[in-house]
Amino acid sequence: MDTLRRALSMAAGFILVAAAGAGGFEDPHGIGYDGRDWKAMSEQAKLAYVAGFLAGALAQQALDRHRMDPRVSVDAAVSEIARAHSATFPLGSGVYKNVLDDYYFYRNNLPTKIYRALIERNTEMLKR
CA torsion sign, 65 to 70 to 72 to 74? Predict the structure, then answer.
């Protein structure tokens, strides 16, 4: 079982490194990825990228709540955010993946970093 986990972990790491394309630098967090990298990713890699982004955003939001009131555990904050549907990025990973696919359809958007596109698209969707 440990061998399978290691193999899956290595495969996931390979996907992320390969998705970076010819960027020429190691970017283990995908912060430098832009629309060209997005278009080179498989559907599975896109969903994994967005899911990781959403999990990180939710964890940061919970940590911020915990720091404001240390009596509230991070786990309790995550539960409350989920229960109240008050996450900064409240929609599912499939929704954000599709939004990015649409956004990067236009060539002039390709230089935009993926994290920046997620923030901007989320802001626009929440205004409606």
Answer: positive
Look up residue 113 and give its two tokens.
């970093």
Check: CB of residue 124 under 8 Å from CB of residue 98: no
Q: Are 62 and 81 in contact (CB under 8 A)?
A: yes
Residue 39 domain boundaries: 2-22+31-127
- Give me the half-sphere count of Cα atoms (radius 13 Å) on the Cβ side of residue 117: 27
Question: Distance between CA 29 and CA 60 in Å, rounded?
Answer: 15
The residue behind tokens 């399978």 is 4
Number of domains composing the chain: 1
On whether the CB atoms of residues 102 and 120 are closer than 8 A, the answer is: no
The 10s digit of each residue's pLDDT in 40-74 is: 999 999 999 999 999 999 999 999 999 999 999 99
**Which pTM was predicted?**
0.75
The answer to whether 89 and 108 are in contact (CB under 8 A) is no
